[in-house]
Amino acid sequence: MPKRRLDPLPAAAFQILLALADGELHGYAIMRQVEQQTNGRMRLGPGTLYSSIQAMLQDGLIEEVGRDDQSESGRERRRIYRWTTSGRKLARSEADRLADLLRVARAKRILRGDYV
Amino acid sequence: MSEKIYACLLKLFPSRFRREYQREALQLFRDRLRDERGIARRLRLCVDLVTDLIIGLPLAYQNSFSAGSEPSLAPNGPGALPFQVLHNDPLRPGAILLGTVLAFSAILTFSWVMGRDIGERLTPPNQLTSPIERVMQRLNQPQQLDTSTQTPAQAKASGTANVSSQTQANPQAHSRPPQESVRAQEPVPAGAPVAAPAQRLAISPASSRSSETASGSRLLSTGADAIALRFAAGKSAASQPSRNGAVISVAPASDAFAPRAPTTAHYAAAAIAQTNPANAMPMSQPNVENATQAMVRLMRAHQVVMFGETHGNQQEYEWLCSLVKDPVFASQVDDIVVEFGNSLYQKTVDRYIAGGDVPQEQIEKAWRNVIGAVGPVSPVYGWFYKAVRDSNLQRPGGHKIRIVLGDPYGDWEKIHNAEDLGPYLAHRDEWYAQVVKDAVLAPHHRALLVMGAGHFLRRSGPGLVERAIRAAGVQPYLVVFGTNAVGAYADLDHRFDAWKAPAIVTLQGNWVGELPANPVLTGGVVAPNAQKMEDVADAMLYVGSRDTLTQVNVPPSGLLDTAYGKEVERRLQIQTGRTMEFTQPLEEPQFHRPLQQVSSNGVHLTPPNPPRSIHDQLPPRPPSQ
Q1: A58 touches chain B (CB under 8 A)
Q2: Residues contacting residue B561 through CB under 8 Å, at least 6 positions apart
């Protein structure tokens, strides 16, 4: 089995997968979604965003589903992405891994609180 | 940041990325520009983009290269040779141009780096060197004898066991009571007994002078009255040469380098060594280089170059004066540390060489009041100070050479007897080394050190000064004064005749390095021993055939019935218990035939005992004058 390029999954790629969990998004929307879901801690720039998208496309984690003709400017047709089954599985796997880590951290009393 | 700027930055990304995502990236940039207004947000956008450039570029290139490792296209199906398909775009002219410029820049940089002398930059300011630099330093370091690596068998074979160096290297030896005898320095007729009784100071009132011997002792050249002193003292084995032919040596008499009478056996042994076919080895020709050019080259390659001079030699100091006026040399040398300068007068000298208005009688104290000088001090040292001053004045606004005075700070006005003089005499090499460490090594200056050759010669390893420099992590280069006298006094080597003086020749791996050190260094006055020129130094300065060399003296008119003459007589009384007649000519041959150096009456007077204070430490340094 060929090794994936995104192994281990970078934080940016994981955030993109999480952003696409809500549905199909174009690049700028992904960026905004990531910013929102990280409370502004992560703002993906164009280089990072599209390099990650490029790698995820090559690994089959996401796919392009077409162009958005209803862009805000009305001048540009944006590419729309969504996650694939592989991407969803990988996101779940990564979330499980992080959840395990959190459980360990809580068991070690590194984290407090009863959420996560 | 405008869209145009960002579009330019995007050109840093690989072509595959730009082909697929440039439009998207620009669109995203425009979206953010539209949505993020205000100074703070725009500033944050700029920071984000710069950060994105740093993070995204490697990722984009990683993707680009990864694309190249995609399964290869095999149009002929299974079994056909696989070919990796790279980008199908031809290289753009800009990329070709950029590549060409970078390639040429790399070649030029590499050539420049390889063309530079590595020693020049090997000692960073903090003296910490990388392993590679240390290896390069070792490779650049000239080969030389080193007591630390010399086996006892080698030392025995070379016959270089030298009590002077041993006592310097072994502090315990300092506490040993002086048991060595004191011997006269003047050559004796062949066959005559050499060693003098212990604890005696021999004074030969001969109307002759001699050269600096390989042991560092100065054979006198005061003209009318040659005086050689050797205090037998275990406190310090450092030789104490003086100005203008006089010398005070503080060294055990068992010094293997103590000059001995050139006996027939000496000359026979040297002749056999030179003529025995079994000893004959193919010797390459030396590289005879213009002395000034060679010194410039050496100064470029070494932070410290040591020059072992012969006192008072006219040709040598004419060359030194021309050297300091060479603009290339002057621009690359920070300090010249001289033996012929009493540290007490550093401020005066600083003012003088900077062009200040300093009266002659004040500045000449610097070299006339040197502690080790016995008798009148040769005027050549005044020439040198003036040459440095002129050189600095000729280059207004340019790099200035500084003369650093390396002789102990004894004040002759406060020295009334031998006990007052003793501590300064005993620590001349140590003080010189301390001056080098403080004024040269600590501020990482580039320096030429000038001192009597006897202080610098490597007898059974580097001398005290060189050891101190090496201990600081600096590898000095040693040039010594030499002549074409290669055996007995009459034995001049005519291979030197083809050389254009002044010249400097390296001594490793050629016939000059194979020559016996003693006669070459002393104009044939001292007989050969086992050491060769290549053993004692790295290179030799040749300023002319032995018989053309002249020593410059203070003429009698400058001494008779003058304050300086009276002061010289007073000092001689302190140093030797005797006075002298001031009859030496202004110029005379540098090296006299040894047999002529025997005193006319053959009387060897019993000298005074060495002062007890020779074991004392140097007193605190007074303020500079």
Answers
A1: yes
A2: none
